[in-house]
Design a protein that fits this description.
By secondary structure, the protein is α+β, with helices and mostly antiparallel strands. Helix content is about 30%, strand content about 30%. It has 13 helices and 16 strands. The chain has a six-stranded antiparallel beta sheet with strand order 13-12-11-16-15-14, sandwiched between helices. A hairpin with a 5-residue loop joins strand 11 and strand 12. Helix 7 runs parallel beside helix 13. The radius of gyration is 23 Å and the shape is globular. About 10% of the residues have low confidence.
């Protein structure tokens, strides 16, 4: 994530993920402009033109690291106004080495109205400069009623005091602070929310804004339920995008595919807050999958278990349809019955996507190339033992991870072919 000046693109703020992804040392931030990472400078101009007509935009394009290497990414931009100055909030995700042979799934437009949590953006003087629709519903104030005011002026003193308490601690621009906050709604009702405070600082370490993400805690639930993935990793500003970007970076680092896939399933399970995640590799012949990597499954299954690729299994059905499959309740699912692996683990809800096989072997026939099996390397799935309504954003996230895997697998195969050619000579 990076916040830059609208005019010249100079860095106003960038997080550690951005620095790591683009190879930007802290010592160079003051001399860096966001335009420096665009492989084609006209791409940024086109995005800025779109921002003049709407508050946010999104596009797949080519960018470059400071070492000159080129990558494809999904960039999402939205306008911000801080202390009267126009700024751009940008997120970069789904880094790929080569141009995708299909359109990348839509990411998460960094418009706070798309977030499932309440979002409050404050200036350094604690004045409210953004307030999304969830915050309107939670606190009872419309956005037009709060802009330019402070939280204390809205009788949200506990939130206001928590900001002062957090900002008095040693500054760490990449971490957040979460606590339960009691508050009084506009109509006088008392309530409580979980709030995460995230400071945005410039390259000098000066506080320029504070982002607060809030989630309701109802009295009917004695203990808070699982924290939403976005809230759990809010230090990366947009958790699912950050996970995709992080795993894309790890794909560049790990030469061992087994290490990467194990990290992927672990990160996906944590980000989506599910008990189970599995990566199935389609075996030769296309009749079964091999449980290549997984999280949460009974000991001894990962690396050994086989799962049917028949249409009666969720993975087999996903492969046949070649599209994301979301299961609301496996116990009453009519499209397929589910495998013993899922039923034995008391799985209720889940979703799965195909991990594509990039490129085709020259020996493949036209009929083989056109079949879903030939186009797939495997299936990536997540599952929960409680009823879970997966959102479209969750589906897009899983698709993005599948794209990262597909790129890494193809890169690994290319390296193996190259090593084989070198050995034969």
């Amino acid at each position: 994530m990076i916040v830059s000046h609208l005019g010249d693109g100079r860095v106003f703020y960038c997080n550690s993920r951005f620095q790591q992804t683009f190879g930007l040392p802290k010592s160079e931030i003051s001399n860096f402009a966001e335009s420096d990472i665009f492989a084609n400078l006209t791409d940024r101009e086109v995005l800025l033109e779109k921002l003049q007509k709407q508050d946010f935009t999104q596009q797949t394009l080519q960018v470059k690291r400071l070492d000159g290497t080129l990558w494809w990414t999904l960039v999402s931009m939205r306008l911000l106004t801080v202390n009267g100055e126009k700024l751009i909030l940008s997120t970069y995700s789904e880094l790929l080495r080569h141009a995708p042979n299909q359109t990348l799934p839509s990411g998460y437009i960094p418009s706070f109205d798309h977030w499932k949590q309440g979002v409050i953006l404050l200036s350094a003087e604690h004045q409210i400069i953004d307030w999304n629709t969830v915050a309107e519903q939670m606190f009872g104030y419309d956005k037009s009623q709060v802009l330019g005011r402070t939280l204390a002026a809205l009788n949200l003193s506990a939130l206001h005091d928590a900001i002062d308490l957090y900002n008095s601690e040693p500054a760490d621009e990449y971490s957040g602070y979460t606590r339960e906050i009691p508050f009084q709604r506009r109509d006088g009702r008392l309530d409580c929310c979980g709030a995460t405070f995230l400071p945005l600082r410039n390259q000098l370490g000066q506080l320029v804004a504070t982002l607060i993400s809030t989630q309701a805690i109802t009295e009917e639930v004695p203990t808070p339920g699982p924290i939403d993935p976005l809230l759990a990793t809010l230090q990366s500003k947009v958790s699912q995008q950050a996970t995709v970007a992080h795993l894309g970076q790890q794909a560049l680092i790990h030469s061992d595919l087994s290490v990467l896939v194990n990290e992927v399933v672990d990160a996906v399970a944590k980000t989506l807050d599910v008990e189970y995640c599995k990566l199935l590799e389609l075996m030769p012949g296309g009749h079964a999958f091999w449980l290549r990597a997984g999280v949460g499954w009974q000991k001894g299954l990962v690396g050994n278990a086989r799962v049917s690729a028949h249409i009666n299994s969720q993975a087999g059905y996903t492969l046949l349809k070649n599209e994301p499959i979301v299961v609301d309740d496996l116990r009453v699912e009519t499209r397929f019955s589910g495998t013993p692996l899922l039923h034995n683990h008391r799985v209720v809800s889940g979703m799965s996507v195909v991990v594509a096989r990039w490129g085709q072997d020259s020996a493949s026939s036209k009929k083989q190339v056109d079949s879903p099996i030939s186009k797939a390397w495997g299936v990536l799935s997540v599952h929960s033992t409680c009823h879970r309504q997966f959102t479209l954003e969750d589906v897009h996230f899983l698709e993005a991870i599948a794209n990262v895997l597909a790129a890494a697998i193809e890169s690994h195969r290319a390296q193996e072919r190259l090593q084989l050619m070198e050995t034969s000579h």
